[in-house]
Amino acid sequence: MDPLLINQNKDTAVQVREWLSGATRNWNIANRKTLLIVPDQTRTAPLGMLFKAFCELWLESAAALDVMVALGTHPPMS
C-alpha cells in the first residue's frame, strides 16, 4: 500500500498501522534512541496518521523517540 494514496478514515488508519508494522518489523528500535525525520508542509502525506501509528508501535519500547522536521533546502515547487 502506498501511504501517500490513502484516504484518512478509521479503516485506513488500521491499514496504515499494519503497513507500518510490516515495514518496520526488522528495525531494532527497542531500548534505543530513535530519530524520526518527517517531511515539512511542502510534501503531501498523511503525516498525522503515520506518526500516530509509529508512536503506537514503537514509543513504549524505544529508549527515546525524537522527531525532526525536514525543512529541505529546495526552492518552492511551481
Description:
- With 78 residues, the chain is α+β, with helices and mostly antiparallel strands.
- It has one domain (6-70).
- The chain contains two helices and two strands; from the N terminus they run H-E-H-E.
- It has helices at 10-23, 47-58, and strands at 33-39, 64-70.
- The longest helix is centred in the first third of the chain and has 14 residues, at 10-23.
- The chain is flat.
- The N and C termini lie far apart (28 Å).
Q: Could you describe the largest sheet, including whether it forms a barrel?
A: 2 strands, parallel
Strand order of the largest sheet: 1-2
Compute the CA-based radius of gyration: 14 Å
Q: Quaternary arrangement of the chains shown?
A: single chain
Query: Into which percentage range does the β-strand content fall?
Result: 15-25%
Count of strand segments = 2
- Could you spell the SSE succession in H and E letters? HEHE
List the helices and strands and how they pair.
Blueprint: H1 10-23, E1 33-39, H2 47-58, E2 64-70
Parallel strand pairs: 1-2
Helix pairs in contact: 1-2
